[in-house]
Amino acid sequence: MNSPLVSVIIPCYNAEKYVEESVRSIMNQSYKNLEIIVTDDCSSDNTLMILETLAVEDARIKVIKNKEPSQRRLLNFNK
To answer: What pTM was estimated for this model as a whole?
Structure first.
């Protein structure tokens, strides 16, 4: 029997210190039928570069770069 595909979604913003460890923890799970969707919310650090490097290493990783900061994040800046 085939295992169902599980999608893991990880939103990121300026997460260069932790993003590799976080994504690798998902990559190393014993359950292998995963897609790892990582969104970069216009980070100004090396988050996107790290994610793109990981995506080359593991085809299950899909990197999405937002063209504009998310509205949710912008609302938090106004508080």
So the answer is: 0.82
